[in-house]
Amino acid sequence: MNVVIVGVGLIGGSVALELKESGFATTITGIETDSENAAQALKLGLVDRLGTLEESIPKADLVVISTPVNIIEEMISPILSLAGPQTTVSDFGSTKESITSHISKHPKREQYVPAHPMAGTENSGPQAAIKNLFRGKTAVICDRDQSGKQHLQAVEKVLKLLGMRCLYMNSKEHDRHVAFVSHLSHISSFILANTVLDIERDTATIFDLASGGFESTVRLGKSSPEMWAPIFEQNKKNVLEALEAYIRHLEKFRNSLSKENTSETRSILSQANGIRRVLDSINKGKT
Amino acid sequence: MNVVIVGVGLIGGSVALELKESGFATTITGIETDSENAAQALKLGLVDRLGTLEESIPKADLVVISTPVNIIEEMISPILSLAGPQTTVSDFGSTKESITSHISKHPKREQYVPAHPMAGTENSGPQAAIKNLFRGKTAVICDRDQSGKQHLQAVEKVLKLLGMRCLYMNSKEHDRHVAFVSHLSHISSFILANTVLDIERDTATIFDLASGGFESTVRLGKSSPEMWAPIFEQNKKNVLEALEAYIRHLEKFRNSLSKENTSETRSILSQANGIRRVLDSINKGKT
User: Fold this and answer.
1) Where exactly does CATH 3.40.50.720 map onto chain B?
2) Residues near B87 by Cβ (< 8 Å), separated by ≥ 6?
């Protein structure tokens, strides 16, 4: 398989590592506009060669686009236009509705499979690429009935090879669910980091006191703004709804605490414990 | 050393494990009002025997109170009154100002050392007790000048034996710092869990999609309401200030996203990346 990875960062680089090692890819071409990242990806052996869209896409068997979602939105149509008759094109972005709407009428629409492998770390760039990033995690494939059978199968094969479970939903459902389950988690972490940095200007104090659960909650606050700002912007409608709901819940808790309504305060915290059931099943799934 | 642990849960049980194994404690007496937890603590070998306040405290060398903070507040004065002339009394609660204010004029005040070992997990009860819970973490000792030298040294010895770094501040400073660095993290997790559980009533969807960073952010949402409600209530003034600041920061981000102010959105997320410096130093400290 002749594989082209557009955007060789954490996600693209980690995909490249696995496709190369498994023998799925015979050649991996990296397309990367950041020249430092491009050189790094080549040096780390994530890709066999660097290329351009015009020269690489037409003869590719599989193209995976793993740039920030604003770039995916810009590039998906031109890339699909360059695709050869057998080329499968997929994007691994965290939003789907806006991206798919850009090529809903594209003559090669059936060669495109929108996918979202739900995995990542708070690190970015080709040097952050790691093996087993995707193993045991979930990938969502959107709008499967609009992709041709052979293209759908090719992407499913890649996701399974990465060790992922495939889930199917439409782009609209996808964007709404991830707003609550993924995007809101990131916002709560980013903003928690800002709130604490703002008050505790002496970061030595944060360092000294951070052993009490702070680190896990705020870890996602290290994530790349270049990646996440476009995600929040493209999924604005759903993210704003999730954020409003979060603020409302926080205000309800604040009022309960402020009015010393002990039974309500406890009841709010007890409700949250419902998440234990979900997390326990996740961890059971891991073993 | 004759050690008495009042409240043998996650914290008290983990302290007991280490004091026993190191030989620091010759006998450990557990005082536990929950009969199931008491039986469990004895069965797990966390304590050598169960006792009552009246019988155990007067002849103890060291008393560690590790109940929820509302119970510490109720019990600190009667326990100190029961203390023998050489008994050192310490509490390991997460709030300090309210507790210490209850015994500021107690005739045995100098036998008391208010401490806060900043360690824990989202689990609770004697079966949650583990070894090395405290290792490498920070303990805060408050108002050190109000404790007698021998009592201060006894508590420092215990905290060092647990593997902790000791830090000193007054109760007021302590409560303000932990409101931002610890209590707010817990609230953001509890409320994030509620927000997501509220919208995603089908928990199977959360389970399926939770691989994208959700788990680490929401882990603290599993914490015990019996422990945390009294902490938030006792530290109400500071917690409300932290919560207000957090809501303001969230609203600023919401407005920026809503008005499509791309440069402000990115700048907010970039500021949050400042936390990387702090977290990286913590992890460097661990190795």
Assistant:
1) 2-170
2) B57, B58, B60, B61, B62, B63, B111
Chain B environment of A273 (Cβ under 8 Å): 193, 221-222, 225
Residue A162 reports pLDDT greater than 50:
yes
**CB-CB neighbours of A16 under 10 Å:** 27
- CA A285 distance to own-chain centroid: 21
Interface membership of B222 toward A (CB under 8 Å):
yes
**Weakest-pLDDT range from B5-14, B124-133, B174-183, B194-203:** B194-203
B2-170 is classed CATH 3.40.50.720: yes
Residue B214 has pLDDT above 90, yes or no: no
On whether the CB atoms of residues A150 and A88 are closer than 8 A, the answer is: yes
What ipTM does the predicted assembly reach?
Answer: 0.90
Residue A77: count of CB within 10 angstroms of its CB: 16
pTM (predicted TM-score): 0.91
> Does B257 sit within 8 Å of A239, measured CB to CB?
yes
- CATH 1.10.3660.10 domain position(s) in chain A: 174-286
Distance (Å) from the alpha carbon of B282 to chain A's nearest alpha carbon: 6
Nearest chain B residue to A213 by CA: give it: B182
Query: CA A241, A255, B187 angle in degrees (round to 5)?
Result: 65
Question: pLDDT band at residue A286, thresholds of 50, 70 and 90?
Answer: low
Residue B203 structure tokens: 């928990």
Q: Above pLDDT 90, what percent of chain A?
A: 85
The encoded tokens of residue A233 equal 């912007």
State the pairing for strand pair B112-117/B138-142: antiparallel
**Closest-CA residue of chain A to B227:** A266
pLDDT digits (tens, 9 = 90+) for B138-166: 999 999 999 999 999 999 999 999 999 99
Q: What is the DSSP string of A156-167?
A: HHHHHHTTPEEE
- DSSP state letters, A170-231: -HHHHHHHHIIIIIHHHHHHHHHHHHHHHH--SHHHHHHHTTTTHHHHHGGGGS-HHHHHHH
Q: Mean pLDDT across the stretch A155-160?
A: 98
> How many whole angstroms from its chain centre is CA A115?
10
Residues of chain B found within 8 Å of residue A137, distances taken between Cβ atoms = 211
- In a 3-state reduction of DSSP, which class is residue B50? strand
Q: Does residue A215 belong to the interface with chain B, where contact is any CB pair within 8 Å?
A: yes
CA A114 to chain centre: 12
- Of the candidates A229, A244, A254, which has its C-beta nearest B243's C-beta? A254
How confident is residue B282, by pLDDT bands cut at 50, 70 and 90?
Answer: low
**Is residue B72 within 8 Å of B65, Cβ to Cβ?**
yes
Q: Where in chain A is the domain with CATH 3.40.50.720?
A: 2-169
> CATH for A2-169?
3.40.50.720
Residues A174-286, CATH architecture:
Orthogonal Bundle (1.10)
